[in-house]
Amino acid sequence: MKKIFFICLFFITSGCTVFQPEEANLIQPKLLMQSELPPLRQSTFSNYFEFYCEMQINLHGDVERAKLLTSSGDAEWDSLAELSLLKWKYSPAIYDGHPIKLLISRKIRVVFAEPIIFSIAEIQLDNREAADSVYQALLNGADFTLLVQNYSTSDSKTNNGFIGNVNVKHFSEDISFELSQLKEGEFTKPLNFGDHYIIFKRIKLNN
After folding, report:
1. Does the predicted model carry a pTM greater than 0.70?
2. Which sequence spans correspond to the domains of the chain?
3. How would you classify the pairing of strands 63-68 and 48-57?
4. pLDDT band at 99 (very low <50, low <70, confident <90, very high)
């Protein structure tokens, strides 16, 4: 299988467009899911390479602005990489118990690794109580698709919860681990995903 890029992030510094929060009262944004970076043309990178970037994370954990601070040496790749970073999803930064907009700087290590592609559907719930209730219904044999239609708050509801054939390595480490353990037809417990809880199900792979 063709190799792809697996991204590992390391925190460097943070700042805010409005004020500089005190680190003691600040909960940093956590990466929940990343998107594919564009293929590299250069053959000079054998196992990995690193670059620095700046991202502005809004109150909902979406990346509003992304900028590469160091170049790969390929201007076109740099531009496409910035577009990819705009699709990444974080949990919002929390300051004094409230979500805030935060400007973060990070070093990103791009590692060449084999993908793990699963076909995944989801039920997104807005609070823990609803997530636990839906999960219990699934354990009792309720139909996954019916629960999607009745309870999911995700746009994927229009497609019966299906989110596509995805590389599970693009999720955060804890979610990626849970997904990688699934066999076809199995589902996860409710997993915290930013402001939501999501129950993922592995379905038959669509080729």
Report:
1. yes
2. 4-113, 117-203
3. antiparallel
4. very high
Spell 11-24 as b/e; 16+ CB within 10 A means b.
Answer: eeebebeeeebeee
Do residues 205 and 120 touch, judged by C-beta distance below 8 A? no
- The answer to whether residue 15 scores a pLDDT higher than 50 is no
d(C-alpha 104, C-alpha 15), whole Å: 6
- 81: part of which helix (H) or strand (E)? helix 75-85
Q: What is the CATH number of domain 4-113?
A: 3.30.2420
Encoding tokens for residue 35? Answer: 């998107």
**Neighbouring C-beta atoms of residue 37, cutoff 10 Å:** 19
DSSP symbol at 51: E
Distance CA 170, CA 30 (A): 13
3 state SS of 171: strand
Torsion from C-alpha of 121, 57, 99, 196, nearest 10 degrees = 0
Domain 117-203 is of which CATH architecture?
Answer: Roll (3.10)
pLDDT digit string, tens, across residues 35-83: 888 877 655 556 677 889 999 999 999 999 999 999 888 889 899 999 9
Query: What mean pLDDT is reported for the chain?
Result: 85
4-113 against 117-203: fold identical? no
Specify the pairing of strand 26-27 against strand 117-125.
unpaired
